[in-house]
Amino acid sequence: MDIKDIIKPENLVYKKTELMTDNVLSYCPGCGHGTAHRIAMEVIEEMGLTEDTIGVAPVGCSVLAYDFMNIDMQQASHGRAPAVATGIIRTWPDKIVFTYQGDGDLAAIGTAETIHACNRGENIVIIFVNNGIYGMTGGQMAPTTLPNMKSSTSPFGRDVETMGAPLKMTELVALLPGTNFVTRHAVHSPGHVRKAKKALRKAFQNVKDKKGTQLIEIVSNCNSGWKMTPVDSNEWMVENMFPFYPLGDIKVDGKIVKELH
Amino acid sequence: MAELKLMKGNEAFGEALIREGVDGYFGYPITPQSEVIEYLMTELTHERTGMVTLQAESEIAAINMVYGAAASGKKSATSSSSPGISLKQEGISYLAGAELPCLMLNVVRGGPGLGTIQPSQADYFQATKGGGHGDYHMYVLAPASVQEMADFVEDGFDIAYKYKTPVMLLSDGVIGQMMEKVMIKEQKPRLTDQEIHEKHGDWATIGRIGGRERNIITSLYLKSDQMEEHNQKLQAKYKKMEEDDCRWEEIQTEDADYIIVAYGSSARISQKTIQLAREKGIKLGVLRPITLFPFPKKPISELANRVKGFLAVEMSAGQLVEDVRLTVNGKVKVEHFGRNGGIIPSPVEVLEAIEKLIKE
To answer: In this predicted complex, what is the ipTM?
Structure first.
């Protein structure tokens, strides 16, 4: 039997979403961004939101997200995606607007824009990919880099005495009245991918229902920046990142569901 | 209906934004232009026309809100004053790079640094030479009256959409704060969502309506040949502006032996100097650039063939004078008279500078 005989609609078990382009991903092999992109696009396609959705991708590894996400996209300057998204949603209140930001972007240079957009309760989805490092610029220390973790600008490990402690922006914005759904996920195993996708679906439904700001953190690996193999980086993430950035819902339907400390 | 009103320049700008059918204004308070956002908030713009007025957390956020709205085909504006405009520079560079239309007002105050809240024209270089990073220009209009603070809103948006480029009104504390009579134009309707699809659907990010190909707003071109091509496209746009949309006003230049080049408040002051000079038998005229970029090179260059000298009068330490010198190109002498730090020159001081120019 020829392979062409097998390719039939009735035999279809999995299909790449139309909302991912055929462009070759510019992410390093093993990186979690590709999966995070895919599930976000699957959710938009499955919910029938393609004609209404506008994405904003600021500077960072995902600045080229518009090459891969087959929807209307704006590239934004470093840290400013929540402000750019505010400009869109305020003038197009019935559209679906999301940002896709890294940890350096969201938790360092864009701290003010993130906190204030969340505090105003802008009706947007913020997808926050946290890999504890500046990936695109070559592995420098991020606001989320763990204590004692090595990076090119903390070559002897992050000294919290002089470099500050990692910033838990997700817990921080959960305290603001404008946020409606705040949750933390990962995409390193099929089970985690399913849970993350479910959370994304909930977040997009919530903005459709005009419930306010949705923040989905995805704790991810950066095998290049961490100087590990992809498999090792995922193991290291489970052992080191998850205890500091525990997975699960933090705020649901405007109510904090987890003890914050 | 058009109306004659007595208003501050900043308020006239605000009212003109509403009547222009603007969709979104995003601002942050700073003296001497806070009246713009105060006026818009008091006028309940959302109830009047559906226009969004939002106070941002910073000038940086405000310009990026403008970016988001403009990139989605919505008519958007911001205003600030010198230190705030400095903060906006990264955003302005992105707007120019991504070819987005918008309107910005700078009510200039004395600097550098925190400077002072008194009027100044010290942001000329910043406005006309780019300001932010990269090879770009804004189209810069310089209002010299409260009337022009209102009129240049419509003119500015026309240019912004014609060229898909950010436009700046470079005003100063005098024009922003002073009250004059102003004829406010009748209300233009805001574009409907359908009209935005029809007019801007080929480039604006408003969702893949009808399953069309995606639109992308970006200023990123990682391949240098593409980046150069994009730069050349921008430069061609600036050249076209210079050919088709350069504006200036000539006041008593027909028989003039000497010409003052001045814009905004300085041009108003220099008009009084013409009168004082002519009483003394000095044939003086004023050339007022209305657009600072593109700079009115053609009329200045023509005048340089028949007058004896130029004096650039500005509330800055010698910025405008550089463009005048480049244009005159050594044909006749070009001198500078400026006050800075918030001091407004008097017509008599300007006359003394003209007399000094004649003597030398």
So the answer is: 0.96
Give the number of other Cβ atoms within 10 Å of residue B214's Cβ: 17
Burial class (CB in 10 A: 0-12, 13-18, 19+), B185: middle
Assigned token pair, B114: 């925190």
| DSSP designation for B196 | H
Q: DSSP labels for B311-352?
A: EEEESSSSSHHHHHHHHHTTSSEEEEEE--TTPPPPHHHHHH
B12-B14-B16 Cα angle (round to 5): 65
Q: Which residues of A touch B68 (CB under 8 A)?
A: 56, 74, 76, 83-88
Res. A89: pLDDT tops 90:
yes
pLDDT class for B138, splitting at 50, 70, 90? very high
Spans of all domains in chain B: 3-184, 248-359
Distance CA B292, CA B262 (A): 10
Q: Do A112 and B54 touch (CB under 8 A)?
A: no
Do residues B306 and B285 touch, judged by C-beta distance below 8 A? no
Within 8 A by CB and 6+ apart from B279, the residues are none
- Indicate whether A98 belongs to any domain: yes
Closest-CA distance, B72 to chain A, in angstroms, reads: 6
Out of B52, B214, B219, name the one closest to residue A71 (CB): B214
The whole-number pLDDT of residue A136 equals 92
Task: Name the CATH topology of B3-184.
Answer: Rossmann fold (3.40.50)
Q: How much is the pLDDT for A6?
A: 87
C-beta of residue A186 within 8 angstroms of C-beta of residue A131:
no
Q: Is A73 in CB contact (< 8 Å) with chain B?
A: yes
Verify whether the Cβ–Cβ distance B64 to A73 is below 8 Å: no
Q: Which domain holds residue A179?
A: 31-255
**Quick one: CATH architecture of B248-359?**
3-Layer(aba) Sandwich (3.40)
Q: Cα dihedral angle (A102, A103, A106, A110), rounded to 10 degrees?
A: -110
Give the helix/strand (H/E) hosting B86. helix B82-97
Residues A132, A241: contact at Cβ < 8 Å? yes
N residues, chain B: 360
pLDDT exceeds 80 at position A48:
yes
pLDDT tens for A111-155 read 999 999 999 999 999 999 999 999 999 999 999 999 999 999 999
Residues 6+ apart with CB under 8 A from B72: A54, A74, A87, A88, A91, A92, A95, B204, B205, B206
Residues B46-67 have pLDDT tens digits of 999 999 999 999 999 999 999 9
- Distance CA(A257)–CA(A260), nearest Å, equals 9
- What pLDDT score was predicted for residue A260? 86
Is the pLDDT at A261 greater than 80, yes or no? no
Can you list the alpha helix ranges (DSSP code H) found in chain A? 3-6, 33-46, 65-68, 81-91, 103-104, 111-120, 160-163, 169-174, 190-208, 223-226, 230-236, 242-244
Mean local confidence (pLDDT), A201-222: 98
**Residues B146-195 pLDDT 10s:** 999 999 999 999 999 999 999 999 999 999 999 999 999 999 999 999 99
